[in-house]
Write a structure and sequence with these properties.
mainly alpha
Amino acid sequence: MSRYFVYGEKELGHLRRNDPILGSAIDRIGMITRAVEPDFFTSITRSIIGQQISTKAQNSIFERLNEMVGTLVPTTIVDRSIEELQSVGMTFRKAEYIQGIAYKMVSGELDPASFSALSDSEVIEELVKLKGIGVWTAEMILIFCLQRHDVVSYGDLAIIRGMKMLYGLETITKKEFDAIRSRFSPYGSIASLYIWAVAGGRLPPLD
């Protein structure tokens, strides 16, 4: 699986036809290269570590964890104590969450390979059963690990901010969000990449 989110003119053409405002933004921003993490355990561990901390802190803790365990796989996490996992800079609760998921994978209770047969909503349903995983984290795993193509997160503040900026709205109700999102389907994840870019100030001004 690619280390970057894969999309092309087929997806962009659909978004341009169905949403000319987004289409204009796509043309002005150009192609977006966004890294993904195809290994499920690596992805979910990084996600849990990164909850409510900066990206810089997340990367630092994640690197220290990798150095400590040697190879980041469920068995190497199960072999460590909670205190050892904490020692790299994460909270007790995060260490518990990560080790709990590792135990489920080692036992076979959790098998990420089974996700390929499930719909997006079914994967989210399975993931939120795990301690430490909410809907937003599950949606990010759908995009940046499983590379699902039709995910737009209502719970993502940057998505909401980007939509407001793009469409000139002061507020967005759930009904309005759903109406906008429906124009993107089945390529909502690609639209999300561009809406995040808009929220991050990457939209060049019109000439």
